[in-house]
Amino acid sequence: xxxxxxxxxxxxxxxxxxxxxxxxxxxxxxxxxxxxxxxxxxxxxxxxxxxxxxxxxxxxxxxxxxxxxxxxxxxxxxxxxxxxxxxxxxxxxxxxxxxxxxxxxxxxxxxxxxxxxxxxxxxxxxxxxxxxxxxxxxxxxxxxxxxxxxxxxxxxxxxxxxxxxxxxxxxxxxxxxxxxxxxxxxxxxxxxxxxxxxxxxxxxxxxxxxxxxxxxxxxxxxxxxxxxxxxxxxxxxxxxxxxxxxxxxxxxxxxxxxxxxxxxxxxxxxxxxxxxxxxxxxxxxxxxxxxxxxxxxxxxxxxxxxxxxxxxxxxxxxxxxxxxxxxxxxxxxxxxxxxxxxxxxxxxxxxxxxxxxxxxxxxxxxxxxxxxxxxxxxxxxxxxxx
Length: 386
What we know:
By secondary structure, the chain is α/β, with parallel strands linked by helices. The chain has helices at residues 35-46, 58-71, 76-90, 96-100, 102-141, 173-185, 201-208, 231-235, 238-242, 296-302, 307-315, 324-334, 342-348, 372-385; strands at residues 9-12, 15-18, 155-162, 190-196, 214-218, 248-251, 256-258, 272-276, 287-295, 349-350, 360-362. Helix 1 packs across helix 3 and helix 5 packs across helix 6 (173-185).
């Protein structure tokens, strides 16, 4: 086992323990899962207020129980329990009440299986990414940060780091991503690191080896240090854009990576460009904000638009209005700012839509449209240009 992989934990039955493995190394379902324990845990969790259901029929109660389980499918343990429960109860019990729910049973059984398959693929894809990092880390470690002096360039790369978050995916996460980004951008780009709290500055500087010409900026939102929950809103604020002096801003995060040299400069004409998305939950032209190139002059105007107006626009869609990139989309739309076509945005960054070549990536392992083998092809772009 690699020592640099961070293993998540979860609360189970009142105690903290290592999360049981549902998906095996090859994507198969593990036989080590204690399904009866999971079933007990979920049922106790879901039936905490039985008095609220006294006026409902048993059929309605079961429908509500199934619905609540469906909402919890983001946890693979619950998805596994749901599949197990539905197969053993819905599939075998002949009670009329269960038969009436057979349509819902089939739907949720299929939904649970899809969630589990997606989880298996996500784990495989993330493993592909982490293996790539592990192989290339000695190479990237030699790529020193050479940033353009502040005030001597019209382009800057920025990353915002909050407390406890600079080794989010693996040890050395911050150093690896920043050095890879700056290596491929070249010495004509500046680097500005936003951080919070103030005590984090020295640790981050040490991590990068105290490079010259880097601008270190403490995060302030309305005069205060923001929390992790308000990080998105910092990027949608005049505080953020006032602190940056360059016109062209490449925003990147710890789950992004710039793969190719001399690539980003070909997109400077756009007011905003990021990894494109498609599907029912995304409006046409939507681009993610985790790896994105923006013009300061455009966005300084955009953040002046009343946020309530933008939230109202998002309310009629399946977009989450609390996400900064949702606000970006509707702000640019209201300003009649032209966005790049899908093909151009795909050439800039890869996330949900499989398209190569591309300049960079932003957590593509989350999407079933990006298979592990396709992710390997994308990451090979950096190997080819290293």
